[in-house]
Amino acid sequence: MPARRPAATRRTVLRGVALTPVAGLGLTACGGTEEGAAPLTGPVELGPESEVTEDGAKLYRDHNVVVSRSGDGTLKAYDTVCTHAGCPINKLEGTKLICPCHGSEFDATTGKVLREPAVAPLKKLAVEVRNGTLVVRPQT
């Protein structure tokens, strides 16, 4: 005769119920798009052009955009929703973007992957300066 497993105690059941929302948060972070990670659908004003220094980059978290400026003054912009799992990238170190979900890293000046698990580059955006203000939009 097989051994009987003891019935779950009230404490065990309550502990499981209490931990279920926490486990769900972990799955949401790993599963993809979080609120605020929607792609750009039209033009967005970011701020003064002067915020992006030469050979530097600025991350605009509210819009999931990074803008960089090369030594010759050329501006480039990329969508900062990670191409691995759709998480919004929230960290910029110099010109290196770091995704908080799984550690993917991207070059903010080229959009290229520097560290996996992401393998696809960031989506390039059109960027221009209007009356001293940076404006980005999806490329057509």
Q: Brief overview, please?
A:
The protein is an alpha+beta fold and 140 residues long. 16% of the residues lie in helices and 32% in strands. A hairpin with a 2-residue loop joins β9 (124-130) and β10 (133-138).
Could you give the order of strands across the largest sheet?
1-10-9-4-3-2
Distance between the termini: 70 Å
Order of helices and strands: HEEEEEEEEEE
Q: Helix fraction?
A: 10-25%
Beta-strand content: 25-35%
Characterise the protein shown here:
With 140 residues, this protein is α+β, with helices and mostly antiparallel strands. The chain is 16% helix and 32% strand. The chain is built from one helix and ten strands. The chain has one helix at 10-31; strands at 44-48, 56-60, 65-69, 75-79, 91-93, 96-98, 105-107, 113-115, 124-130, 133-138. The strands form two sheets. The chain has a six-stranded antiparallel beta sheet with strand order 1-10-9-4-3-2, with no helix packed on it. Strands 5-6-7-8 form a four-stranded antiparallel beta sheet, with no helix packed on it. Strand 5 and strand 6 (96-98) form a beta hairpin. The longest helix is centred in the N-terminal third of the chain and has 22 residues, at 10-31. It is globular, with a radius of gyration of 21 Å. The model is unreliable at 17-36 (pLDDT under 50).
Keywords:
globular; alpha+beta; six-stranded antiparallel beta sheet; four-stranded antiparallel beta sheet; 1 helix
Reconstruct the topology from this structure.
Layout: H1 10-31, E1 44-48, E2 56-60, E3 65-69, E4 75-79, E5 91-93, E6 96-98, E7 105-107, E8 113-115, E9 124-130, E10 133-138
Antiparallel strand pairs: 1-10, 2-3, 3-4, 4-9, 5-6, 6-7, 7-8, 9-10
